């Protein structure tokens, strides 16, 4: 059988240099068809070949049936931002195939199942049809599993066409199935059959190739939700309560798995932790605050709608001064929005979550390495500052696989903050819960169960004086709020400082979180266009003098963010009103990560 | 007479709270007094107790008892979440929660039922007066159908029965009492404190300002005339002998609590209710409602139901007592995990 459909452009291609390790593969499938195994196998095999890769799963809010796209970007230069174009299409979803094929550039490649018998409408791309059904039928796969393994056919064909190392595909499957021989062999059988069929039947006429490199040695590949969960475990988390919500759910799944591995008492086999699935996010945050008040390191993970429900409790924890860690893996809002698409839309909400004069420290991990780091640091900050700490991740970081240097074991002991023991109380003769003894705005607390007659206080959301007693006196209210503001100023120097890369450019970029990948690449492109930029990556709110200095040193500042209203730009202008005229917002949100192409164009438009 | 002390050498005064700011004669004050009395009598260390509440008149009361206990005055209807987190973090704490009928029957009904379903170890008192006091007299969800109030007019909706909701959520301890019946409140409180899961105490606690006229089933005059105790209840601490009058066989039932203490129930006519029979408990509440009876006493108890800590398979050591070394896994564990993830081992 001949499956090679040559197009007139073939002769031209022979004149072209091969394109090596610098293109994007897009695999279009139907949600629920089990393509994740195949897609991550390709991604991991390329990674193991030493080639910088990044994968993005663009999926619907649906269990089965709606279209899903998985992109695998290979970048010899190590870029990991989203790329809009794709050169190789694996068309496995008939519904979207026509549109997907339209999106291919000249010289593009389309793989599709032979059974479709589609028209080859474009003569500037290469079509390869794959006999998926025949390959699966020829294998001895049990009939109930054929739909799952059939995706392996395109893995094998791609291995032939691109020259992916088959041994690394086996390693990748072995990793995926945790060394279980049966599924590895069953899937690998299809990969091998497809690989051999392609070797025998396909004549390669496209320019795309992979070659081994040495750019990933010693690195790991992990999703941000797992990294944040692992970091939390090394932060000593003991209690978590949560309510399922995309895209944060897998963070708690990972947390449970890591806790089960690392925090099971070897003698009794019992858990030295608790993870409670709450009835809703109000319950979840309430339980976390209860546990934090009692002295446990406690966290929850949620997304925008859950964050909204946590509002009243966030204000209570701010005002009663109870440590808690809240991860918000952001998705598209307002409202239910697009539950399976990414955004940085909760910045203002998280910063001011609660009624009255409420504000919170917010951390912005930009990659999986930082997700791990902030996983443990958030607890130190929460207990030091006796307040909720919000960690704003997003779907792009949380649910996609990213390359990273190995994580660093915490380099500081756990900071349990200002907690008085019975002995301390005996020595001091008592304490006032909300008195500013040290001038940093942070009071001393005691934990329930402390065996001392003067240990107790009543935590409350109502107005209170330094002794935590109910008070409606205006001067008590003002004094308390002034202290809370002093505490917030203390937080400015305690939260992770911005990461600054400057070399005297006239303009500066400010970004935070996952837009980092986009900024890194866009800066190189801008430089190639003759526009030099300095860069400050915010790692947390509240802001401090470092950011102010950076803005002062540049004529124009572009604040880059993945939302519609330019939320961080608003905060910066609000905090530094005198510098507001030089702060410009470059904000965009369509559900997908920002692209360097968009950012480069955006800056050039302003600068030229 | 010398100063009396209990088994741990504390005086009754060591259990008192701040001065109440509730109305004079409020049922809630008498319940606060019973909490003080019971903790003193049981020789409970105040620092082992946490006082929890939601929002409302009832929820102010933790400030009026046990000054030497930590407390958390939480959000409206959200005390169950605080109770769940704090008792899971430290299982040595004795949690006494005080809620009201608005707090539990309306805004917090969801949290209440989920707490009960998880069998969180907490004494959950609902100071039930059928009316919103702090907002000046609206009907609560437990108000009687057909009742009239000056501010709110006629209540057209049927009441939510806290005990029935608790039973439906598989509560392991359900009792109803009357703030005017101090002895019964006291004995039930003792049993509730010794019970190891959620103990729901629905205590009719009259609002003397907004809902204390005879036509209201949540009033003192009504309660004093109509209360029908199911049992004459006596709490017997562990290791003390149970001496009961066996003159009327079949009339006395002793329920053993988890710590070895007992609740001796001398059944009063006409009910002869068996509080270990769940279907009987459902029937009892519904039949009492239909017959307009104000029954009080122990409605249901199930000592064997697993608590949240048990269904979570947790260690007995309180999580807050774990050392930093137990909380943060060692460097080798991280290295091992990273090795597994790293290219290309």
CATH superfamily of chain B: Thiamin diphosphate (ThDP)-binding fold, Pyr/PP domains
Number of helices of chain A: 22
Helix content of chain A: 25-40%
The CATH superfamily of the largest domain in chain A is Pyruvate-ferredoxin oxidoreductase, PFOR, domain III
Inertia-based shape of chain B? globular
Report how far apart the termini of chain A are.
56 Å
Q: Order of strands across the widest beta sheet of chain B?
A: 2-1-3-4-10-9-15-11
Estimate the mean pLDDT confidence of chain B. Answer: 94
Instruction: Catalogue the unreliable spans of chain A.
Output: 1-13
Which secondary structure elements does this structure contain, and how are they paired or packed?
The complex is a heterodimer of chains A (608) and B (345).
Chain A (H helix, E strand, L loop, with lengths): L3 E2 L4 H4 L5 E2 L1 E9 L4 H14 L4 E6 L8 E9 L12 E4 L2 H9 L6 E5 L12 E5 L1 H7 L7 H4 L2 H11 L3 H11 L4 H21 L6 E2 L10 E4 H11 L4 E4 L6 H14 L11 E4 L3 H14 L3 E5 L1 H6 L1 H10 L3 E7 L16 H5 L10 E2 L4 H18 L2 E7 H5 L1 E4 L17 H7 L29 E3 L13 H21 L4 E3 L5 E6 L2 H14 L4 E6 L1 E2 L3 H8 L3 E6 L5 H9 L7 E5 L8 H12 L1
Parallel strand pairs in A: 2-9, 3-6, 6-7, 7-8, 11-12, 11-13, 13-14, 14-16, 15-16, 20-21, 20-23, 23-24
Antiparallel strand pairs in A: 1-8, 3-5, 4-5, 10-17, 15-22, 19-21
Helix pairs in contact in A: 2-7, 6-8, 7-8, 9-10, 9-15, 11-13, 19-22
Chain B lengths: L26 H15 L7 E5 L3 H4 L9 E4 L5 H11 L4 E7 H7 L1 H10 L3 E7 L2 E2 L5 E2 L8 E2 L3 E2 L7 H7 L4 E6 L3 H13 L3 E7 L15 H7 E3 L1 E6 L15 E5 L5 E6 L10 H13 L3 E8 L6 H4 L12 H4 L3 H11 L4
Parallel strand pairs in B: 1-2, 1-3, 3-4, 4-10, 9-10, 11-15
Antiparallel strand pairs in B: 5-6, 7-8, 9-15, 12-14, 13-14
Helix pairs in contact in B: 1-7, 3-5, 4-5
């Amino acid at each position: 059988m001949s499956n090679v459909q040559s197009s007139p452009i073939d002769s031209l291609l022979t004149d072209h240099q091969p394109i090596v390790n610098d293109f994007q593969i897009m695999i279009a499938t139907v949600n629920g068809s089990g393509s994740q195994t195949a897609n991550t196998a390709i991604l991991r095999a390329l990674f193991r070949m030493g080639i910088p890769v990044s994968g993005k799963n663009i999926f619907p809010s649906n269990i089965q049936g709606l279209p899903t796209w998985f992109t695998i970007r290979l970048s010899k230069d190590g870029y990991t931002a989203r790329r809009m174009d794709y050169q190789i299409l694996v068309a496995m979803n008939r519904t979207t195939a026509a549109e997907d094929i339209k999106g291919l550039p000249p010289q593009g490649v389309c793989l599709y199942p032979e059974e479709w018998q589609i028209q080859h409408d474009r003569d500037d791309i290469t079509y390869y049809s794959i006999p998926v059904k025949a390959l699966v039928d020829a294998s001895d796969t049990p009939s109930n599993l054929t739909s799952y393994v059939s995706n392996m056919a395109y893995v094998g064909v791609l291995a032939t066409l691109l020259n992916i190392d088959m041994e690394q595909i086996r390693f990748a499957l072995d990793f995926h199935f945790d060394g279980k021989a049966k599924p590895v062999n069953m899937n690998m059988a299809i990969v091998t059959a497809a690989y051999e069929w392609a070797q025998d039947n396909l004549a390669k006429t496209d320019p795309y190739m992979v070659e081994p490199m040495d750019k990933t040695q010693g690195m790991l590949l992990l999703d941000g939700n797992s990294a944040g969960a692992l970091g939390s475990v090394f932060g000593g988390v003991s209690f978590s309560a949560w309510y399922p919500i995309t895209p944060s759910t897998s963070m708690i799944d990972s947390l449970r798995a890591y806790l089960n591995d690392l925090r099971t008492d070897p003698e009794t086999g019992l858990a030295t932790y608790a993870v409670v699935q709450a009835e809703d996010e109000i319950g979840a945050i309430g339980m976390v605050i209860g546990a934090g008040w009692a002295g446990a390191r406690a966290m929850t993970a949620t997304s925008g709608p859950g964050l909204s429900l946590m509002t009243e409790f966030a204000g209570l924890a701010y005002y009663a001064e109870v440590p808690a860690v809240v991860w918000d893996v952001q998705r598209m809002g307002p409202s239910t929005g697009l539950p399976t698409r990414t955004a940085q839309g909760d910045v203002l909400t998280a910063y001011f979550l609660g009624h009255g004069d409420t504000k919170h420290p917010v951390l912005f991990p930009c990659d999986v390495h930082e997700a791990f780091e902030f996983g443990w640091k958030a607890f130190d900050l929460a207990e030091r500052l006796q307040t909720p700490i919000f960690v704003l991740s997003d779907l792009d970081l949380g649910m996609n696989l990213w390359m990273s240097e190995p994580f660093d074991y915490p380099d500081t002991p756990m900071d349990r903050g200002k907690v008085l023991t019975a002995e301390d109380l005996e020595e001091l003769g008592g304490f006032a819960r909300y008195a500013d003894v040290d001038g940093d705005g942070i009071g001393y607390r005691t934990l329930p169960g402390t065996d001392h007659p003067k240990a107790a206080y009543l935590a409350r959301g109502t107005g209170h004086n330094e002794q935590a007693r109910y008070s409606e006196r205006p001067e008590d209210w003002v004094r308390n709020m002034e202290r809370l503001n002093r505490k917030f100023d203390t937080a400015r120097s305690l939260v992770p400082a911005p990461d600054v890369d400057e070399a005297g450019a006239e303009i500066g970029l400010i970004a935070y979180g996952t837009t980092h990948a986009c900024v890194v690449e866009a800066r190189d492109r801008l430089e190639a266009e003759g526009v030099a930029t300095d860069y400050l990556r915010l790692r947390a709110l509240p802001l401090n003098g470092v950011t102010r200095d950076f803005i002062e040193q540049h004529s124009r500042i572009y604040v880059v963010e993945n939302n519609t209203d330019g939320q961080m730009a608003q905060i910066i202008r609000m905090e530094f009103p005198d510098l507001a005229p030089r702060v410009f917002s470059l904000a965009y949100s369509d559900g997908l990560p920002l692209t360097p192409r968009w950012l480069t164009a955006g800056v050039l438009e302003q600068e030229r | 007479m010398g100063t009396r002390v209990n088994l741990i050498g504390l005086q009754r005064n060591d259990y008192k709270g701040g001065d109440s700011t509730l109305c004079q004669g409020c049922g809630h004050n008498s319940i606060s007094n019973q909490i003080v009395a019971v903790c003193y009598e049981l020789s409970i260390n105040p620092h082992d107790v946490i006082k929890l509440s939601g929002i409302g008149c009832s929820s102010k009361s933790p400030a009026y008892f046990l000054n030497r206990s930590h407390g958390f005055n939480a959000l409206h209807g959200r005390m169950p979440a605080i109770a769940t987190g704090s008792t899971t973090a430290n299982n040595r704490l004795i949690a006494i929660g005080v809620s009201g009928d608005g707090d539990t029957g309306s805004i917090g009904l969801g949290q209440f039922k989920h707490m009960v379903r998880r069998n969180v170890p907490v004494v959950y008192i609902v100071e039930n007066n059928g009316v919103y006091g702090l907002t000046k007299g609206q009907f609560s969800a437990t108000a009687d159908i057909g009742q009239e109030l000056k501010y709110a007019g006629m209540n057209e909706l049927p009441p939510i029965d806290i005990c029935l909701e608790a039973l439906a959520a598989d509560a392991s301890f359900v009792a109803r009492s009357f703030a005017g019946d101090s002895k019964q409140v006291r004995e039930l409180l003792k049993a509730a404190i010794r019970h190891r899961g959620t103990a729901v105490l629905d205590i009719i606690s009259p609002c003397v300002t907004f809902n204390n006229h005879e036509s209201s089933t949540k009033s003192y005059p009504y309660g004093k005339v109509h209360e029908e105790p199911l049992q004459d209840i006596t709490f017997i601490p562990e290791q003390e002998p149970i001496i009961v009058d066996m003159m009327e066989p079949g009339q006395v039932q002793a329920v053993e609590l988890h710590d070895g203490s007992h609740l001796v129930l001398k059944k009063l006519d006409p009910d002869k209710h068996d509080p270990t029979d769940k279907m009987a408990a459902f029937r009892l509440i519904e039949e009492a409602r239909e017959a307009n009876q104000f029954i009080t006493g122990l409605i249901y108890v199930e000592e064997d139901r697993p608590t949240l800590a048990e269904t979570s398979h947790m260690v007995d050591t309180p999580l807050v007592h774990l050392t930093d070394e137990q909380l943060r896994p060692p460097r080798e564990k991280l290295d091992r995990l990273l090795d597994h993830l790293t290219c290309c081992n």
